[in-house]
Design brief:
alpha/beta; Alkaline Phosphatase, subunit A; eight-stranded mixed sheet; four-stranded antiparallel sheet; 14 helices; 16 strands; 28% helix; binds calcium ion
Length: 464
């Protein structure tokens, strides 16, 4: 059995057609969803690239991996002996290949990246020896814009902010964008793998819809900002004194609108551009999924399509990730195992991204390291309605943690502007009314705090 990963950046699940969005056009993902299991309640363990990826690529939760923000290098923090996914799959006998980003950056995970037999369109670690690119490397106009200074330079943050804080026509043709090239390289590799008949793992990255929300004009032209509704949960609906992210809700965001809140028109334009980015990704991913079918690989290839975390599209005045609210902690996830009884169905049970390694171990038959902190959800690929985890967990730092059950979300902040936030998701799905200090919810508050402190082992699926 082969494994294909498609990892999309910063994707708000609610923006995708098959997750219920009626405006954004994602026909290829929608088609794929009809052949796979779509997880409607899949949650990441951290809400930015580096800690989330470190978590699902090692099977460790952030407080165990030691990586909970974008500055902590995976290779310097994970416990000694930690085996990341490329190592596990290579030791299992798969030829391992990656196109584009996988860990946060090669310099964040050099030893882990050495387990790739092929590294395409990404920096290889020093000493890595592998084949040249499968396709002649094109000069991508997108990439001419390199930072004029190092990451640690004082001007870097401002350079990055200016680069990030844009939306609209990229001025490029699709084939001048790296995401297009990633898909083309994936198709070429899949055709080669199909001829060689050697089991493989391939991961392909799509950088859109990460900011800047710029994309070729033909995609921007698909959406009329006038027809985009304003975001739900506007700042006016919040009691800011009890909202943990009030500072960003009323001021600067990290990824876009970094100088302050947008006008209503700008908000609509940015959401339209985000949809355009997703439609571009959908075209690229569609070509790769077509190649899986065309080459006959569909019959023996596990296909996992996912985002590394979610993204706020203006709800609560937020235009970024980094919160533990629903828009960022939830992410799209589809898993297609050839012949799985649940293919074509939706699973509403809770799964966590930290479960991916145990699930692959279960499906492929490799031994999952005992330190791994997830649970195989392979049984849900047989019966997606089987009762599963009662809660999901997430952190942004050791002092900021979240637990979500079906009914409530509970966030704790040791140093935050509020000590805790409690939301009744049944009455208040957009998490606008903080009940943490409401005497009528004292018992629920205590119960949720208890669950958070007891941790993930107290929320495991019931034994069959
Ligand atoms: Ca990301």
């Amino acid at each position: 059995m082969n494994v294909l990963f498609v990892i999309i950046e910063d994707t708000n699940a609610g923006a995708i057609g098959c997750y219920g969005n009626t405006i954004c056009q994602t026909p290829n993902l929608d088609h794929f969803a009809r052949t796979a299991v779509q997880f409607n309640s899949a949650y990441v363990q951290a809400v930015s690239c580096n800690p989330s990826r470190t978590s699902f690529l090692t099977g460790l939760r952030p407080l165990t991996s030691g990586v909970w923000n974008n500055n902590q290098r995976t290779s310097e923090h994970v416990p000694p002996g930690t085996k990341a996914l490329p190592q596990l799959l290579k030791e299992h006998g798969l030829y391992t290949a990656v196109i584009g980003k996988f860990f946060h950056g090669t310099d964040y995970a050099r030893p882990q990246m050495m387990y790739f037999d092929r590294i395409e369109h990404a920096v290889a670690p020093p000493g890595w020896k592998g084949p040249p690119p499968i396709l002649p490397a094109p000069v991508l106009k997108e990439e001419e814009e390199k930072p004029p200074m190092g990451r640690n330079d004082p001007g870097y943050r401002e350079w990055r902010r200016q680069r990030s804080d844009r939306y609209g026509d990229s001025g490029l043709k699709p084939e001048e964008e790296s995401d297009y090239y990633h898909a083309a390289a994936a198709v070429a590799l899949l055709e080669q793998f199909a001829r060689r008949r050697e089991p493989f793992f391939l991961s392909m990255h799509q950088s859109h819809p990460h900011t800047p929300l710029t994309v070729p004009k033909k995609y921007i032209d698909m959406y009329d900002p006038a027809k985009i509704p304003l975001p739900p949960a506007p700042v006016s609906s919040l009691n800011l004194a009890e909202f943990p992210y009030a500072k960003r809700s009323t001021g600067r965001n990290n990824d876009i609108f970094t100088k302050g809140q947008p006008t209503a028109q700008q908000a609509k334009e940015a959401i339209a551009a985000y949809y355009a980015c997703l439609s571009f990704v959908d075209d690229n991913v569609g070509r790769v999924l077509d190649a899986i079918d065309r080459t006959g690989l569909a019959k023996n290839t596990i296909v996992v399509v996912m985002a590394d975390h979610g993204f706020h599209l203006g709800d609560h005045g937020l235009w970024s990730k980094y919160t533990m609210l629903e828009a960022t902690r939830r992410a799209p996830l589809w898993v297609r195992v050839p012949g799985a009884p649940a293919n074509g169905r939706v699973c509403n049970e809770f799964v966590e991204f930290v479960d991916l390694i145990p699930t692959l171990g279960d499906l492929l038959g490799f031994k999952v390291p005992s330190a791994v902190e997830g649970t195989s959800f392979a049984p849900l690929l047989v019966n997606p309605e089987r009762p599963w985890k009662k809660a999901v967990f997430q952190v942004t730092s050791p002092s900021e943690q979240m637990v979500r059950t079906r009914r409530y979300s509970y966030l704790e902040f040791k140093d935050g502007p509020v000590p805790a936030a409690l939301y009744d998701l049944k009455k208040d799905p957009w998490e606008t009314v903080n009940l943490a200090s409401d005497p009528g919810h004292a018992a629920v508050h205590a119960e949720m705090a208890g669950l958070l402190h007891d941790g993930w082992k107290s929320a495991l699926p019931p034994k069959p």
